[in-house]
Design a protein that fits this description.
687 residues; mainly alpha; 2% strand
């Protein structure tokens, strides 16, 4: 009997699942769900301590703290604030010059001037692009079994430039979803559509191209819904959504809007377009002008000495131009099918592309309204609908995402789900205020939103942990203290390279291959090889590291970076022993320790230790820290003198050569001290 009941229960689930869902529920009104309500600017709450707030954010935070009978922490000291700001806005620690300049500046607007300087840095775009590239499922390969290389880095550079130029979020949205459909489809706008060509393609023999084309289209609509609206639309591809107002028909009507592009899981990645960099374009124009000049001479002069020179010059320029043309990356982009080739879209019963149901017309999920007046029924119409003021989700989701990068968690912790199954906001009025500001007075500006957040008293609090506060607010959800959490994989690497002086200043360009353990790619089926990049490319920012979906860069995945196979809305931070093994033994970190040790090296031990603390932590060491590292240096120096082979091995691992006048045991001891500094909990953590 028990087995029979279990079997019947299972059969019931299988039978009911495709027919259940939100549309079948009659006792719930989706319009009452907090995130689906119209977005309106809330009034500031009243607070007792009116001297604390610096801007609107602080009123909402302080009101909640006062309600819980908590007080904000005092502001963090200036060194801590500078390091926090620099890591948050650029992903890099402050330089010694920036530190000294900030500490010397006693003007009332010293902090704001530093904020503006960091926002204007080209490193801002490099750092904040990483957030978006996670959503864009960016990688340098196609995915699936063969996982061959695909030149997508020009799209990565487009994202960097968009953040550095502070492209408004509404335009950022239009260009990526439908740059090819805009009235003026410039080269940059067409390049932006590579956002949705980051979908994987399958080169494996014997696969059904239509199956994987369909999977790519489904990935695009689900990524669009998650990235811009925080909705798990993928739940509705087999049956109506169980919790949110998206029906099966809604899903395939939305699918129809993205189902009309030329790409079709072909091995040639078509359609692609040559996307020269600014440098390549200048070189191309120079060669074409030179060719035109010598061709004119050749045809105007039958035969003389000058004509012979023009034979030779034309041949050389043509050869150089051909080599340049072949080096220009051909980036996959979106392009609509011509009207006579548009596809008919049908519902996929139970999500099966081979089991087709009724024909559907392109459209939006019914609950979320219609296209704005005058908007076309295509991808451009989707973009206009997303950034329309009547859409309650887009600004909320974006503001929440930016907030989470500063405070470690969003006001809505489930950044990926603003639906009925997501977590409710800790400060709903604050979220709405930020969202209204972002799309209104801030003009969809990323940089202005970032500045609003970092200028608040909430952000500037010390992260000191008070036992009494920990008891009331253990996860700091009320923000009774400053944010403190582990840095991202990329920031940990970039910080080590920057502090050591090894970090390459080069921006943009093809992805590079820094050292990784031998044999990592042997398990991957294809002829693609990891070739360690020479020279400065070995030390470029983590953003530029070649990303292979089936075998991501190991130290990045150890620190919770994604593979680029699917849209990653937020990274879940972990703490494992493997992370310590990376920062202690990975070639990049050992070489960084060697270079940092050499920057610390000098005749005065105390000065060297202080310099190391300034470079890594932007502060002076405490007396106890100074003494402990001094003792460690003496012990290491003694041990390396007794064991010269150990010193030799360490320096070889750190890629260091002993210079004239240097003692091997001294340099090895400095390298060891630097390694300790790079492995401190404080170093790995946002201050």
């Amino acid at each position: 009997m028990r087995v029979f009941l279990l079997r019947m229960l299972f059969v019931g689930f299988v039978f009911l699942e495709p027919f259940g869902g939100f549309a079948a529920e009659t006792n719930r009104d989706p319009s009452q769900h907090w995130s689906f309500k119209p977005l309106q600017r809330p009034a500031f709450p009243s607070v007792a301590d009116r001297s604390w707030p610096r801007n609107g954010i602080d009123y909402f935070i302080l009101a909640r703290l006062e309600q819980a009978r908590l007080r904000p922490e005092l502001p963090a000291d200036r060194s801590t604030l500078l390091r926090r700001l620099s890591l948050d806005l650029t992903g890099l620690p402050p330089t010694l010059d920036e530190l000294q300049e900030f500490l010397r500046d006693n003007s009332d607007d010293a902090y704001e001037k530093m904020v503006d300087r960091l926002l204007a840095s080209e490193h801002f775009g490099e750092h904040w692009a990483r957030m978006w590239l996670d959503l864009a499922r960016y990688a340098d390969t196609k995915g699936y079994e063969k996982d061959q290389a695909r030149p997508m880095w020009r799209y990565r550079d487009w994202v960097i430039d968009a953040f550095n130029s502070d492209m408004p979020y509404d335009e950022f949205t239009r260009e990526q979803l439908a740059g090819d459909l805009l009235p003026d489809p410039t080269e940059s706008r067409i390049l932006a559509t590579a956002f949705h060509r980051n979908t994987m393609t399958n080169d494996e023999g014997g696969t059904d191209d239509e199956e994987f084309r369909v999977l790519a289209v489904k990935d695009r609509i689900e990524t669009t819904a998650q990235a811009w609206m925080g909705l798990t639309m993928g739940c509705a591809k087999c049956h109506s959504h169980k919790y949110d107002p998206i029906t099966l028909t809604d899903y395939y009507r939305f699918y129809a809007l993205f189902n009309q592009t030329e790409d079709a899981d072909r091995g040639d990645e078509a359609p692609t377009v040559p996307m020269p960099t600014a440098e390549q374009k200048q070189q191309q124009e120079r060669l074409e002008a030179e060719l035109a000049k010598w061709r004119k001479i050749f045809w105007q002069e039958i035969p003389n000495e000058l004509t012979a020179v023009a034979f030779a010059k034309i041949t050389a320029a043509e050869k150089e131009l051909k080599a340049l043309t072949n080096s220009i990356p051909k980036t996959p982009i979106l392009r609509e099918l011509p009207p006579q080739k548009l596809r008919v879209t049908r519902v996929h019963r139970r999500g099966n592309f081979l089991d087709l149901g009724e024909v559907v017309t392109p459209g939006l999920p019914e609950f979320f309204g219609s296209f704005p007046a005058g908007a076309p029924t295509n991808r451009l119409g989707v973009a206009e609908w997303l950034v329309n003021p009547r859409n309650p989700l887009t600004a909320r989701v974006a503001a929440n995402r930016v907030w989470a990068r500063f405070f470690g968690a969003g006001i809505v912790e489930t950044e990926e789900d603003f639906g009925a199954q997501g977590t409710p906001p800790t400060h709903p009025e604050l979220l709405d205020w930020l969202a209204v500001e972002f799309r209104g007075s801030l003009g969809w500006s990323w940089k202005k939103l970032c500045k609003t957040i970092v200028m608040s008293a909430t952000y500037r609090q010390s992260s000191r942990q008070d036992p009494a506060k920990l008891k009331v607010d253990p996860r700091n959800q009320m923000l009774s203290r400053g944010p403190r959490f582990r840095l991202s994989a990329e920031s940990i690497r970039d910080q080590a390279l920057a502090a050591s002086g090894l970090l390459s200043p080069k921006t943009h360009g093809p992805s590079v291959m820094p050292p990784q353990p031998d044999g990592i790619w042997r398990a991957v089926y294809s002829g693609l090889k990891w070739k360690t990049s020479p020279g400065p490319d070995r030390y470029r920012r983590a953003l530029y590291t070649f990303s292979r979906r089936t075998s991501p860069y190991p130290s990045m995945t150890t620190f919770d970076a994604g593979s680029g196979e699917v849209c990653t809305i937020r990274r879940i931070r972990t703490n494992t022993p493997l992370q310590a093994l990376v920062t202690l033994n990975d070639p990049v970190f050992v070489e960084a320790a060697g270079a940092l040790g050499r920057r610390m090296e000098g005749s005065d031990l105390a000065d060297g230790i202080r310099r190391g603390f300034e470079l890594v932590l932007a502060r002076d060491p405490a007396p106890q820290e100074q003494q402990r590292l001094s003792n460690l240096f003496a012990t290491a120096q003694h041990d390396f003198a007794k064991e010269p082979n150990s010193a030799k091995e360490l320096l070889e691992s750190a890629n260091l050569q002993v210079r004239a006048g240097e003692r091997r045991e001294d340099l090895a001891a400095w390298t060891l001290l630097a390694n300790v500094l790079l492995n401190l909990d404080e170093t790995m953590t946002k201050p």
